Structures are given as structure tokens and as C-alpha cells.
Amino acid sequence: GAVVSQHPSWVICKSGTSVKIECRSLDFQATTMFWYRQFPKQSLMLMATSNEGSKATYEQGVEKDKFLINHASLTLSTLTVTSAHPEDSSFYICSARSPQGWYEQYFGPGTRLTVT
Amino acid sequence: RKEVEQDPGPFNVPEGATVAFNCTYSNSASQSFFWYRQDCRKEPKLLMSVYSSGNEDGRFTAQLNRASQYISLLIRDSKLSDSATYLCVVGVNLIFGKGTKLSVKP
User: Using CA atoms, how far apart are residues B95 and B33, in angstroms rounded to an integer?
Assistant: First the structure.
């Protein structure tokens, strides 16, 4: 299957700092990538849809100025959590849609963010 | 009605048991359906797509009932390694259910 990588796998930062998370599709080109957040014992929540070369589409309730998304190439999307606060601590997962098949999405391994 | 609903479980079954999960969805226009598996503190992994005619992959069988708007996943001869949370996913933009937790015991 398609491979999606994510970096870093975990990060601890201080309140007020910004953190950038990278998502790469390694063996296919992804015009569309997705960013999710998952709090403990809860389901995945879609934050935004990232389209190569255009602005991301954010879900209701997600602050676009706080969660900056850049999809500069067909294999890379980045999520920057700006001025992070402890309530932003979560598991952030990206996914990329396969160009073939039934719109399956393949997920990166996730980034565990802890804001102290 | 929530967009995608699943019984959260947990389902505790012995090795070798057959277990079935159901999932209901609200958008009758949905065309794409999937089952994903998520292990604790890991990313979801695609288990199988669900086709209109139903499909089988080894011990796993998925079925779609459009009239009643539900999909199902059947696991036969369950293994310890099947222990995970099974996520029902609907639609092109992937609406996730909250998942059903399965624990297979020796």
C-alpha cells in the first residue's frame, strides 16, 4: 500500500511556541491531504483538507490562523500549530488520498504533541 | 442522528470466536465505505473497502446494506492480534465513527 510519513513522531514544547509537523507521501503524489486530531479515547476529528497549490479548507470550529497549513508540493503538507497552549496537546495525524482506487486514505504514523 | 454511529463496545471475545460489528450512517447519498483498524496510540490502517456486493478478505467479511444504511464487519476465527479499535468510515471525505473496541482473550 501507499506510504505516508510524518515528522516528528512526538514533540514537547512550551506554551506560546510554534510547532511544525510535516506529512509526506513517499511513493505517490497526493493532491489532497487531510489533517486530523485525536484526543485520548475519542475519535479522529478532521481539522482541515489540504489541497496542493491552494488554500486549505478548515472544518467548523478550527482556527485557521492558529493551525497553519501549507501544501506546497504533491508530496508534502505541513501543519504549524502557532502559539501552542496545553489544550492543543493531542495526537495529530495526517493522511493522503490515493490517486487510485476507491478514495482510500493512507495515514501517517501521527505526531504526539505535548504542550507544557 | 449522528453521521456515523458505532457501538463503542468493548467486545470481549475468546480466541476463535466470530464477532460482528455494525455501523449506521445518515447520509443516504454516501458512496464510499471503509473499515479501518486502529491500534492503541497508532494511526488508523485501512482494513478493507466495502463494496455494494459485499467483499471478503480472509477471515474478514464486509457487507453494505444501502436500504437500511448500515455496513457490517464480520471477523471469523478471531486471533489475539485482532484486538484493536475498528473504525467505520463513510464517504469520500471520510467521516469516522468513534470506533468499536475489540479485545480477543486467550
Answer: 9
